[in-house]
Write a structure and sequence with these properties.
This protein is α+β, with helices and mostly antiparallel strands. It has 27 helices and 34 strands. The strands form seven sheets. Strands 2-1-3-4-5 form a five-stranded parallel sheet, with helices on both faces.
């Protein structure tokens, strides 16, 4: 094996050359990135050839050649460089380079040529050494050289330019189809060259003679004896006399026909390979490291959804990556390892459609530069399936980990194999603690036998090859803190991937609250039945057809009918209403969304009419509508009310007379006070007179207030549409010039008939005290336990410390009775009032109307 030293400052080229040269098995190649110090190294003597680049930073190839020639005059030295200047070639040859080979072109053919040059140089050196060391064996050496040339298909020749004599070795003659020993003329040689190549070779030869430069080229020849066409590689070097005139040409010819045939075969194979690549069902591309696409097969065009291959070539590779950081990782891995497999890529088409591919990539040399040869396979369908599977798994895991129900699996030995984390919230045990314990410890003693029997029955059916119905049982389970919970257990057979039953999978749901609710409902049912039967007022339950479904004992006691006479009939059919009482059917239909109360006249079992307050409400059971009617006898209440009304009327007459007499006397006192003011000049007496006048005025206000207050509660409360009261002339005239806004719509409230006085006093209060007043607004809002009627203005507001004082009797700048009277009127029907505004913005009175005391006709009620 021939040991070679290759020196080049490009690492990648060193590695590539080592691979190619060692591939034949003839060479062992050592590499170095610098020539500095190598000539002095003792290991140089172990190499049989040196290959060197020309342009290197610390010592160029010519300088390295000179150092080598000082110590090793005959060590083969081949200059392999990208520099093609003539002076470099001449200097290399002049300083003893064996061969000069320029980089570029087809890598395979180039390295084959380099292989051959090295082999040729080494063999020539060996031959020359043998000739030098064995002058006595010159014939043998010449024969060896001849054989060497024959084996290598290489022949040397000399052309004497003075005599035009062509002297050649036997192999050189045989290469051009001539017999050994003859001496052809230069013209004979020129005629053997292929006619199409003669002009080029002639020009090259003339150029070399003119410039003194050596030449190296290829040409075709036609063998004169057979007419066969062969390919020769020819190298010529010009020898000049001391005047610089060319006198001889030394040349070497090599038959490269087989190499040419191999190159053609390689080209054919390349065509076949391209056809295979173009028809592969996966995307193949060659891309430079900076992203320029140099080659792509039709599948790549299809994968990225381009219309033509040109569109793809005009696209930079980074533009088809959805995530540029992922591409940077791809390139980094390739630079680091040279090859990357199973790399998942997130890609994008020109239309913005994203897809996934799995890629294989390798760094190669293509068109003289490092590129990435990559193969991509579309895995979008698989990726989407994986995403869906992942979502499904995450959803299942989320459900099992976060559901309040406990999900578990149990083998046939009664051992839990999985328990969801929610068991901790249910029973206080961790999943592992439950799995480490047998089934019997997870069930309270009172439910154990029932559970075991249910699972044993299901297990027997499974072992018989049958599919049992789901096990559904309600059991009591112990908790870690000593308490217990009730759970509803639903379990089914659990199968492995081969379809064999391996146990049970189940869900345990906490039913403790439901059980408590059921017991509470049962208790409430008993209470309801007791109340229903023991209430003295008649109570009826009607269906949607107004048929009586149930009556209580109070109904029997007052109306005297038994169940057989009542059930299934309407109230009209029972003839319990007074003859002049009509419209009960309309009353039922108009009060569906309200608890409605109305006074009606009934006839008891003794045929005696009585007046009653009827309360009608509606409810649903399993979406079926029902009506509940309670009849409350108010005969005695009405009599008491009438008597009180008569007494109140008498008192009103008395108070009116008394009030009239007092006001007359107050007026007399006021007049005399005014007269005294004019007659009295003593300041002290004048002050006393003014005090008497003020007292008279206060008495007058108080007496007038008693007139308003005596009417409070004298008439029964009623339903009143608030917006209608606001539009009354008394309030509108009072608020002349002030904008009154209303958002009340059809709101009605159940209040004392002096509600209008409430609204009037609020308006009067705003006008008296609102220095910047420009608007008054009425609105309302619904709350769970009632409705809030809101009165607000922009007149300044109330100080925080006075928000409650303003409702006290006597507080204020006027009579001090306005807001006091308002609170009293509203309280009759349970309505409260408070001031909640912000001082400086205006007042805001909120009147809370209890549930059942407000409604919005005809649909809503409180």
């Amino acid at each position: 094996m021939i040991r070679i030293l290759y020196v080049d400052d490009e690492d990648l080229l060193l590695d590539l050359a080592k691979i190619f040269l060692e591939k034949s098995g003839e060479f062992s190649v050592d590499i170095s990135t610098t020539a500095v110090g190598l000539a002095d190294s003792s290991r140089i003597s172990s190499y049989e050839a040196i290959i060197s680049d020309y342009q290197m930073p610390d010592m160029n190839g010519i300088e390295f050649l000179k150092e080598i020639r000082k110590r090793y005059p005959d060590l083969p030295f081949i200059l392999f460089t990208g520099r093609g200047r003539e002076e470099v070639v001449i200097e290399a040859i002049n300083n003893g380079a064996d061969f000069y080979l320029q980089k570029g072109g087809d890598p395979k053919a180039q390295f084959a040529e380099l292989n051959h040059k090295v082999l040729q140089a080494v063999k020539r050196r060996r031959t020359e050494r043998e000739l030098y060391n064995s002058e006595n064996n010159a014939r043998e050496i010449l024969e060896t050289l001849r054989k060497t040339q024959s084996v290598a298909h290489v022949g040397n020749w000399v052309l004497d330019l003075k005599t035009n004599r062509y002297t050649a070795s036997d192999e050189a003659l045989q290469l051009i189809g001539l017999s050994p020993g003859i001496s052809p003329t230069f013209e004979d040689i020129a005629n053997i060259i292929h006619p199409e190549d003669r002009p080029r070779i002639r020009d090259l030869f003339v150029h070399s003679l003119t410039t003194g430069e050596s030449y190296s080229t290829e040409m075709r020849i036609i063998l004169p004896t057979t007419g066969e066409m062969r390919y020769l590689a020819t190298f010529g070097e010009i020898k000049q006399d001391k005047n610089g005139k060319p006198v001889q040409v030394f040349g070497v010819n090599q038959d490269i026909t087989e190499l040419k045939n191999t190159s053609c075969a390689l080209a054919e194979h390349e065509t076949q390979f391209r056809q295979i690549i173009d028809n592969l069902p996966i995307s193949i591309s060659i891309v430079t490291l900076d992203g320029k696409i140099l080659y792509a097969n039709p599948e790549a065009v299809k994968l990225f959804e381009f219309d033509t291959i040109e569109q793809l070539y005009n696209t930079k590779a980074p533009d088809v990556w959805a995530d540029i950081h992922s591409r940077n990782n791809w390139v980094s891995e390739l630079k680091k390892s040279g090859i990357v497999t199973n790399f998942e890529m997130d890609l994008i088409t020109p239309s913005g459609k994203k897809f996934w591919a799995i890629g294989f990539g390798i760094i190669i040399m293509f068109q003289g530069q490092e590129c990435v040869l990559s193969a991509l396979h579309d895995i979008t369908d698989r990726k989407l399936a994986e995403e869906e599977l992942k979502k499904g798994e995450e959803k299942f895991r989320f459900i099992t980990d976060n559901t309040l129900d406990v999900i578990w699996t149990l083998n046939f030995s009664g051992q839990f194999t999985y328990v969801s984390p929610s068991v901790y919230h249910l029973r206080g045990y961790t999943p592992q603690e439950v799995m480490d314990s047998p089934l019997t410890q997870a069930i309270s003693p009172g439910s154990l036998q029932k559970s075991l029997d249910a699972f044993n029955r299901a297990t027997i059916l499974i072992k018989q090859g049958k599919t049992p119905d789901p096990v559904i049982i309600e059991i009591e389970q112990p908790c870690k803190d000593g308490s217990s919970v009730w759970t509803e257990v639903v379990a089914r057979p659990f199968y492995d991937k081969w379809g064999d039953a391996v146990g049970f999978i189940g869900v345990s749901r906490d039913t403790t609250k439901r059980k408590i609710v059921e017991e509470k409902l049962k208790e409430n049912e008993i209470k309801f039945i007791t109340i229903f039967n023991q209430t003295p007022d008649p109570i009826l339950i009607l269906d949607q057809n107004e048929k009586i479904l149930e009556v209580n004992q109070g109904f029997h006691d007052i109306f005297g009918h038994n169940d057989e006479e009542v059930l299934g009939k309407t109230i009209e059919e029972m003839r319990i209403l007074s003859k002049d009482q009509n419209g009960f059917h309309d009353l039922l239909n108009n009060t569906w969304d309200d608890i409605h109360r109305q006074e009606m006249m009934f006839v008891n079992q003794s045929k005696i009419p009585f007046i009653a307050e009827v309360a009608i409400s509606h409810f649903r059971i399993r979406d079926d509508p029902y009506s509940l009617i309670q009849i409350h006898d108010i005969n005695e209440i009405r009599k008491s009310h009438d008597a009180a009304q008569k007494a109140n009327n008498k008192l009103n007459i008395l108070s009116s007379i008394t009030r009239h007499d007092i006001l007359n006397r107050v007026m007399i006192a006021s007049l005399y006070s005014e007269e005294l003011k004019e007659a009295v000049h003593d300041p002290t007496l004048a002050k006393y007179v003014e005090t008497i006048s003020q007292a008279s005025r206060d008495i007058e206000h108080l007496i007038k207030f008693t007139k308003e207050y005596e009417d409070l509660g004298t008439s029964a409360p009623g339903w009143q549409r608030v917006e209608t009261l606001i539009l009354e002339p008394t309030i509108q005239d009072l608020a002349h010039g002030i904008q009154i806004q209303s958002e009340l719509g059809e709101l009605e409230i159940y209040a004392d008939m002096m509600l209008e006085k409430v609204l009037y006093n609020l308006t009067d209060n705003s006008i008296r005290h609102g220095h910047t007043l420009s608007w008054i607004r009425y609105s309302y809002r619904k709350e769970r336990d009632g409705c809030i009627l809101i009165y607000e203005d922009d007149g300044g507001g109330v100080l925080i410390e006075e928000k409650e004082k303003i409702f006290e009797r006597g507080f204020g700048k006027n009579t001090g009775m306005g807001l006091f009277l308002i609170r009293e009127i509203l309280s009759i029907t349970g309505i409260s009032i408070q001031e909640t505004g912000t001082y400086g913005d205006g007042v805001r009175f909120e009147m809370k109307v209890p549930a059942g005391k407000w409604r919005i006709l005809p649909y809503e009620s409180g």
